[in-house]
Amino acid sequence: MHAWFALAAKDIRLLLRNRGALFFTVGWPMLVAIFFGLIFGGGGGSSRPKVALVVQEQHAATERFAQSVLKLDTLEVERLDAAKAEEQVRQGKRSAAIVLPEGFGERSARTFSGDPPQIELWLDPSRKAERAMIEGMLMKLGGEAMFSAISDPSARQQWLATSRGDLDRVDPASRQQFSDFYDALDAMMATPQASAPTTQGDAGAGAGFTPLAVTAREITVAKRGPSNGFAISFTQGMFWALMGALMSFVTSLVLERMQGTWNRLRSAPLTAGSILLGKALACFAVMLTSLLLMSAVGALVFGVVPHSLPKLLLAFIAAAIAFTGLMMLLASIGRSVQSASGAAWAVMMPLAMVGGAMIPLFVMPPWMLQLSNLSPVKWAVLGIEGAIWRGFSFAEMATPVAILLATGVLCGGLGAWRITRQPA
Amino acid sequence: MIRIDSVRKQFGSTVALDGLSLDVRPGEIFGLLGPNGAGKSTTMALLTGLQTPDAGTVSVLGGDPRNPALRARIGLTPQSLALYEQLSGRENLDFFARMFGLRGERLKQRVDAALDFVQLADRQHDRAGGYSGGMQRRLNLAAAIVHEPELILLDEPTAGVDPQSRNALFDNVLALKSAGRTIVYTTHYMEEVERLCDRVAIVDRGRVLAVDSVPGLLRTYGGVPVLVIERGGRIERIETNDPLRALNEIAAVGPIDTFHVERPRLEQVFLHLTGRSLRD
Ligand SMILES: Nc1ncnc2c1ncn2[C@@H]1O[C@H](COP(=O)(O)OP(=O)(O)OP(=O)(O)O)[C@@H](O)[C@H]1O
Ligand SMILES: [Mg+2]
I want to staple B7 with a disulfide (CB 3.0 to 4.6 A). Which of A29, A270, B56, B124 is the partner? Predict the structure, then answer.
């Protein structure tokens, strides 16, 4: 145990003192992520969810509410017809559609009686974060709509007339209370000094009142692209982070074996397996750290906020294990640094090319997508994308994660077996 | 301490060891003298379990060196420098000591002691890559003894070292012997063997040609001393086992301008045993 950590600590220290290796595991991936993110037009600071607004009736109150939704600066809203909105949500072009159905205006005029106005949200079931955010904003708008109905004189008169007319529908026990409340409100709001509504209104309304009822309709996204160009470029950058660490450790392992240090380690009371395990541990730690660093910068600076942090961590761990295994196998091929790193490039570049590290998976033609299944790079990219923007469930994550783990164990085992068999 | 019996080791078609047998006694400095490719490093690799014999047996400290617990009692300085150039001298020793299971206070003490031993304490925080060749060789030795092994295997520890560093290394080796360690020392420099080793095995082509103390080897294989005299402008070489008597007899006949005695050296022993010179 102690020996593994000492071995790994030594390798990490060596990496930190090697400027070239450090650049290729941290600097270069970051440059790729930022540079290509800008090319993909990721910028624009548009991390606001794109949302469609569908209005299914003609009603003054509905229209007022629709205008307030359009004015929200936390969402990028466009007014579309129902079919178009549904299509765009299905295609992942918009995260959700806010639908104001028939009867919305009518119901919003009757604040304290009947059902609250209904709003439908059409969105993918995986978009839980967006759903909570949009619902919260709609509730706030609903509350504001009610207050503005009360404070605008003509709207208030209309609202009071409807409300008074509805008194017979209110629970008899509180009928008188509501009637008094409307009178008081009318008198109070008519006085010019009283410009702002007070919280008395809420007190009079009693418990259990909500300005809106939001129901969700699930629309599963057929083929989804990322919301932000940086989401693509940061995934590519993460591949380069894995690749940089892989190359650094292929070099360090081959170098170690060519120098006397390998023999000195082998002459210590350690098995060859545990020496290699120490190397693998260091490689894994460097890969994971580099990936976490990338995702932190991506999230904090470029708005690439992963859809699920635990899933992202899972994808990172699986990808780092796979690449550590590949590192071990590739290091067992060459007997010199040149031949080993040459072989590593020759193997990794085609895998990266078809694996979606250069050409994003979601723009690949079908035949290439088929081919990409053979590349472990694809599964690393898919796992990371799954956690960042594809909104994978844990069940959907299982395939890439399992393939990556299998790759890591098989390649790592084969590589270690080859290395320990080779004479010192 | 060490018993190697009729060991054969082949790499592809190259026969590195061809029935090599050796016995090393506790507390001695045992030399392995032989030309390039004789099989010295291969022997060291067998002694540390890095290689497995194709035939024959290897026993070290009463066991098989492929057993890790036993290797904790052995220290090896590989022929090629086995150091991390990007780590400081101290970091190198600290790391290798950990690999031999040292921890905590004892780890620190042993690293300090090893640095002092090879006189690198003042440069301990500099990167090993920046050390001179001699300093790197000393650090290479320190890394082999940091865990206080009973058996120390030095594979050409003076390669590429100036005379001063070489003397410092000799002092280190002799100090280790005084401390009761057993040392196996390979080299192709006869002077080193003559100066350090209690017993020497002369190896060539994977076989031991002779084992004895240096005087013993010289007696058996070195041939007789040669008395060289110069008189009347002529140089005469007289082979004799008793140069003093021969000199007296000649001096009684007439005056001698100069004289000296050529004693046999290991070079002659090697020539005698193999029919060729050690440095070819
Ligand atoms: N790992 C190996 N693979 C192939 N051949 C080897 C290997 N190790 C040693 N040999 C061969 O075995 C023979 C003995 O080599 P060894 O290194 O033991 O010699 P040596 O006495 O240490 O020589 P030197 O003085 O040059 O260090 C040489 O012919 C060498 O080429
Ligand atoms: Mg050698």
Answer: B56
- Which residues are CB-contacts of A391 (< 8 A; sequence separation ≥ 6)? A124, A126, A127, A221, A224, A307, A308
Q: Does residue A149 share a domain with residue A237?
A: no
Do both A133 and A280 map to the same domain? no
Judge whether A223 lies within some domain: no
B98–A261 C-beta distance less than 8 A: no
Using a CB-CB distance cutoff of 8 angstroms, which residues of chain A are in contact with residue B45?
263, 424
- The pLDDT, as a whole number, for residue A199 is 40
Q: Do A269 and B101 touch (CB under 8 A)?
A: yes
Domain boundary at A182, A200, A218, which?
Answer: A218
Residues A379 and A239 in one domain: yes
Q: C-alpha distances in angstroms, B141 versus B24, B114, B115, B116, B194?
A: 20, 9, 10, 12, 21
Using 50, 70 and 90 to split pLDDT, how confident is the model at A205?
very low
Q: What is the pLDDT of residue B149?
A: 95
- Does the structure show a pLDDT above 50 at A203? no
Do B68 and A270 count as a contact with CB atoms less than 8 A apart? yes
Q: Which residues surround ligand 2, an ion (CB under 5 A)?
A: B 40-41, 79
pTM: 0.73
Which of B50, B91, B100 is nearest residue A424 as measured by Cβ atoms?
A: B50
Q: With beta carbons under 8 A apart, name residues in chain A contacting B149.
A: none
Q: Is the pLDDT of residue A407 over 90?
A: yes
B14 C-beta closer than 6 A to ligand 1: yes
Of A174, A195, A218, the position where a domain reaches its end is A218
pLDDT of residue B148: 94
Shared-domain flag, residues A352 and A405:
yes
Identity of the residue in A3, A260, A263 whose CB atom sits nearest the CB atom of B99? A3
Number of domains chain A is built from: 2
Contacts of A244 (CB under 8 A, 6+ apart): A21, A23, A24, A25, A26, A28, A29, A290
> Mean pLDDT, to the nearest integer, of A287-295?
96
The range of the structural domain enclosing residue A159 comes to 50-218
CATH code at A57?
3.40.1710
**Are residues A169 and A265 part of one domain?**
no
Q: Cα–Cα distance between A424 and B82 in angstroms, integer?
A: 13
In this predicted structure, what is the pLDDT of residue A288?
97
